[in-house]
Amino acid sequence: CLIINKPIFAVVDSSKMHLSLIQVHFHVSGEDAGSNRPFTLADYFNDTIRYKIYNLRWISDNEYLHKTRQGNIMLHNAETGDFFEYISNNTFEQVYATDYIISADRKYICFESNYSKQWRHSFTASYSIYDYDSSLNYSSITKDLMFLSLSPRTFLKSVNIPQVVQYFAWAPTGNKLAYVWNYNIYLKPNATAEAIQVTHNGKENQILNGAPDWVYEEEVFSSNEAIWWSPTGKYLAYAEFNDTGVHTIEYSLYGNGQYPSTVVVPYPKAGSTNPKAKLFVVDTINPSRRTQVVVPDSIGAGDHYLSSVTWVTDERIAVQWTKRKQNHVLLQIYDFDGNNWNENQVLVTSPQTLWYVPLQPMFAEDHISFYKVMSDTYGYKHLHLHIIQKGKATPITSGKWEVIYISKLTKDAIYYVSNEYQGKPGQRNLYKVMIGRSHSAPQCLTCGLYKDRCQYNSAYFSYNASYYRMDCYGSCFVLELLVLRDNKDLEEMLKEFQMPTMQRGTLRPSCDCVKLYAYFPYRYGGPCSQKADYRYRLNWGSYLSSTEGIIVASFDGRGSGYQGDKIMHSIYQRLGTFEVEDQITATRKFIDMGFIDKERIAIWGWSYGGYVTSMALGAGSGVFKCGIAVAPVSSHNLLYCMSTVTVSTYKQLSIQQNSTVTSRAKNFKSVEYLLVHGTADDNVHFQQSAQISKALVVQQVDFEAMWYTDRDHGLGGPAYHHLYTHMSQFLQKCLVKPKSI
């Protein structure tokens, strides 16, 4: 594992500047560059100059599946090192499949075809079931298996799964399955059985069963899943979303026809009606038997969200409910008595925990205690143990750093990822705590591995954590001591280029500069976000730094995450204030360092970052010469209601007119501004940029704008190349070759 890209990282005293971490792409060209050439925009677009991941799916405690470049699925035994072809690419080609899902008993494989993206996580697809049943015991692979001739296998001819399905899932045992079609749930007791319709009231944009609506998918679950199997598959929990009272947003898809079509999406904005979520449990042996898991009165009396569902046993389920203000989280344990789900114990998260989508609890083998990441009394996210009978959470970790998430819980140990090491919020390392009568001191499993290379790590564990794939996001991927992919081919490619260098310091990067450099900070700035981390990126900033000599920086100021609640919550009910001020303050600090040309400073951001960029440009500070806002928010009362602020917050913001971009329109006369948006943006609607444009026109501000027809928030496809080319040309005019006056 070798160092490839080298951005600068500098830690700044947050108590003085309210900035915790800065990431800078920095390149100084000179005679020492030798024959290396700059990393150009064309190189950035070149898909071969990318780091590659090693795809892996655990299917037992020592076996995993890997898809080769040729499209064959290989089954590997991590213990013996043996492997053989499990699924050939020819099988995929028979149904034009792009993905696969294996039943728990490994008798059937479901192939996914006709993938069609809907929103960020949701999609529709077609599913074909392949009969893989065999007398072979795949739990103990030996080399001899590689030479056995397997009997012919075929696709089931009568599957009874519709052509366009919104969700598919095997049960955790056997080959029972469920799917969602037309927002109704269907259950098959086994792969060859007839489908049983479980719900009957599903209707697009009104009642959705087993599939989240837009706002739950985007902001709560971060997935297309609203179905949860019990541990043995005896029960199936599902959420029902009622959108009948939710206001809709409409936008046009222009397509290629004579008339455009209209997309209608229930989209709750500030102060408007939220979707109503209910949780039900179905007996899979008798699907007509359905019971509701009722929200507790303390939460259900007002607007609330269903935040997470966790099965403990077949008869115990843990559900997290959150008040609309997101300042009160209730984890309710329910027990089933054969007829009803009864409230047992409850854990209420401190009201100080604002703006936080709660992480799921991880239950121990005794089924009465669980671990959870939550804020401690000092306002830092830490690992806590909660025993149901005691009703009190005990902290397992502590300090002025944060546990990011729990990776795995076994009967003997708990594994988690934190940013404790070296006190750097942007780092990630894997830790292990042994479980017994007491908890051992945390042991860092990745801190000493490739110290100069791997400072942003994660792990993907086998069933019982005997093995795990370690992901080092610097292009090295490690399984125990076996290197699965080291990306040496990328290392060799990059030797051709003049790449940015990396330094670390407590205040400023050192620079033997003979000239002043243009400066270009990138911003997101949304609550609990983090951009200045130690994750490897080969991106647009690499091109700007290497070819154009522009210093590119990212800041995590007030409102950002993983540095304690005080910093994250500082912009609660104050959006558009401190996070904008910190951008201006940090830029002025860089000017004071002496190697920044104060006449050539720009700023850019996407989504909430587009909002912060626009607010900074409209502040009238005189710091920035130009800026680019991609898919920006203009006013928070036009954004979805779960986007980190509450109804009361929006009412307060409506009074504070200076928190909108449009209220600062007149100040844009002194800057150059590029406004970019996709017309089919389902997240931050084109309406937001339209309002900015209208306000700028009213103030007679000259600005540039670019829209991308029928493109969503990510601006993918051909729009991606066009966007970065257009932004590069804009920066050329503003920073590299400024117009003479």
TrEMBL record:
SUPFAM superfamilies tied to this protein: alpha/beta-Hydrolases (SSF53474), DPP6 N-terminal domain-like (SSF82171)
Major localisation: membrane
UniProt keyword Glycoprotein present: yes
Gene Ontology CC, one term: lamellipodium membrane
Domain of life: Eukaryota
Protein name: Fibroblast activation protein, alpha
UniProt KW Thylakoid keyword: no
Alphabetical list of PANTHER family matching this protein: DIPEPTIDYL PEPTIDASE 4, PROTEASE FAMILY S9B,C DIPEPTIDYL-PEPTIDASE IV-RELATED
Cell location: Cell projection, Invadopodium membrane; Cell projection, Lamellipodium membrane
One of the Pfam families matching this protein, by short name: DPPIV_rep
Membrane topology: Single-pass type II membrane protein
PROSITE patterns membership: PRO_ENDOPEP_SER (PS00708)
Domain Peptidase S9 prolyl oligopeptidase catalytic as annotated: residue spans: 538-735
Keywords: Glycoprotein, Hydrolase, Protease
MF GO annotations: dipeptidyl-peptidase activity; serine-type endopeptidase activity
Domain Dipeptidyl peptidase 4 low complexity region per the UniProt entry, residue ranges: 34-54
Protein source organism: Salmo trutta (Brown trout)
Domain Dipeptidylpeptidase IV N-terminal: 103-474
InterPro entries per UniProt: AB_hydrolase_fold (IPR029058), DPPIV_rep (IPR040522), Pept_S9_AS (IPR002471), Peptidase_S9_cat (IPR001375), Peptidase_S9B_N (IPR002469), Serine_Prot_S9B/DPPIV (IPR050278)
